[in-house]
Amino acid sequence: MTKQVKKPDRREYTFMLVPHHGQAGVRSIHVPILAIKCLAAALCLLVVVVIGGVVSYRHTTVTAGMEKAELEQLKQVNGSQVKQIEDLAKSTAALEQDMERLNTLDAEIRHIVNENDNGSTSRAGLTRMTPGSAQYTGQGGPNPPSLEEMGQTLEDLKKNMAAREQSLLALKEELLAKQARAAVTPSIWPANGQVTSRFGYRSSPWGRGSDYHPGIDIASDYGTPIVATADGTVVHSDWSSGYGKLVEVDHGNGIVTLYGHCSQLLVKSGDYVKKGQVVAYMGSTGLSTGTHVHYEVRVNGTAVNPDKFL
C-alpha cells in the first residue's frame, strides 16, 4: 500500500483595491492562506501573552497589597511593642526611685532605733556571700518572661512596694512617737555622785527624828554639772525657799522635775532644754547640810519615787 504524502496548502486569498473615480485601475493583492494562518496564530499568541501579563499583573498587585497590609500590621505591632518597652522602662525608672525612697526611709528608721547592720546577714536570715568568695559557677533559669509577664510583675512590684512604704511610714511614725515620749520621760541620773538620801521617810539630817523626803539627794563635789533628765521647758529658775537655787522643768504629760540646792543656774524660765543638757551646778544653797543636788519627780503635782524613772 502506498502512503499518501500531504501536499502543502497553496490556496490564497485575493484582496481587490478599487480606487475612486478618475484614479488608476483596480489592484489585486494575493495573500497565501498559510500567511493568514501564521498571522492568526501570532494574534492568538499575542492574546495569550496579554492575558497572561494581565493575570500576572493582577496577581502581583494583590500580592503587593497583601504584603503592604502585612507590613503595616507589623509596623503597628512593632510600634506597640516599642511603646510597651518604653512604658516598661518608665515603670522601671519609677520603681528605682521608689526603691531609693524606701531605702532612705529604711535608713532613717534604722537610725531611729540605732540598729547596726553589718551586711553579713540578710533580712531573711540567710548568710550573704561576700564578694570574691563564690566557689561554684552553676547558672540557669526558666525561659525569659514575655512582655505581658514583665508588665504583670512590675504591677505586682508596685503594689508590694506601695504596701511596704505605707508599713515603713507607719513604723517610722510609731518610732518617732515612741522616741518623742522617751525624750520627755525622765530616764537618766541628774548628776554623778553618791546617793545620800532616798525617796520616802528618812532620819532627819537635823536630828529631829524622821521626815518625809519627796526625792533623792546626790552628793558630789561643789560645781558638779547637773543635767536635765528629759526634754522639757524650764518653768522656774530662781531661789525657792528651802530648795535654795532651784531649776524646775516641765516635760509635759503632767511630769515635772526639780533640781535644788544649786550653786549656779544656767537656764532661765521659758528655755527649752534637751535630755542631758547642763542646767546648773551642784551647790549647797537653801536648807542643806552639804554640797548635793535634790532631785525630785512630780506627776500631776504629786512627788513620786524617781527610782521608777531611772
TrEMBL record:
Superkingdom classification of source: Bacteria
UniProt keyword annotations, A-Z: Membrane, Transmembrane, Transmembrane helix
GO molecular function ontology, one term from the record: metalloendopeptidase activity
Domain M23ase beta-sheet core: 212-306
Residue spans of biased composition, Polar residues class: 116-137
InterPro entries in UniProt: Cell_wall_metabolism_enzyme, Dup_hybrid_motif, M23ase_b-sheet_dom
Gene3D superfamilies cross-referenced by the UniProt entry: Glucose Permease (Domain IIA)
Ranges where the record places region Disordered: 116-148
Bilayer-spanning residue ranges: 34-57
Identification of the protein by name: Peptidase family M23
